[in-house]
Design brief:
- The protein is α/β, with parallel strands linked by helices.
- The protein has a single domain, classed as Alpha/Beta hydrolase fold, catalytic domain (Rossmann fold, 3-Layer(aba) Sandwich).
- It has a three-stranded parallel β-sheet with strand order 1-2-3, sandwiched between helices.
- Strand 2, helix 3 and strand 3 form a beta-alpha-beta unit.
- The two termini are 21 Å apart.
Length: 152
């Protein structure tokens, strides 16, 4: 969305895209091959993620190597024009997607993008833990960081 906003200028009276920042909470990035040596190589787990993507995007001819989900490894995805000044990537240590999410932040930093990227990792938690257990201390910490980022 912020890539498109940067290209299309949401409003002529705004400078840039008009978006100051974005928050990615446990983003769903994936690829056919592991992004690094810490990413899961378990065939069953990887297959399950591929099946979920086929359900979400049945017309994708590239499967999980579609640039919409394989933002990290897809060479066709240039994120240097991200239309905001700051990005917060929230990851959960035990999330299957954690390596993809860390690698997204690293790709953004290397891309030449002129903004600031921050990663918040919650230790000992899985994907979207804050939705499943919203009354825990770690869920409250996530929400506080989310609010703090918005306040600037």
């Amino acid at each position: 969305m912020t890539m498109r906003a940067a290209k299309e200028k949401l409003s002529p009276h705004l400078s840039g895209s008009g978006i100051s920042g974005i928050i990615l909470v446990h983003p769903y990035f994936w690829s056919k091959t592991p992004v690094d040596d810490k990413d899961t190589t378990d065939v069953t787990t990887r297959s399950r993620s591929e099946t979920l993507w086929r359900i979400a995007s049945p017309n994708s001819k590239d499967g999980v190597d579609d640039p919409f989900i394989n933002v990290v490894q897809a060479e066709s995805v240039d994120i240097s024009g991200l239309g905001c000044r700051k990005v917060l990537v929230m990851v959960a240590e035990l999330d299957l997607l954690v390596r993809q999410d860390w690698c997204y932040a690293a790709k953004l930093e290397r891309s030449g993008w002129k903004g600031e990227v921050e990663v918040m990792e919650t230790e000992g938690e899985k994907h979207v833990f804050h939705l499943k257990n919203p009354d825990t201390e770690k869920a409250h910490e996530l929400v506080k960081k989310f609010a703090s980022f918005i306040k600037g």
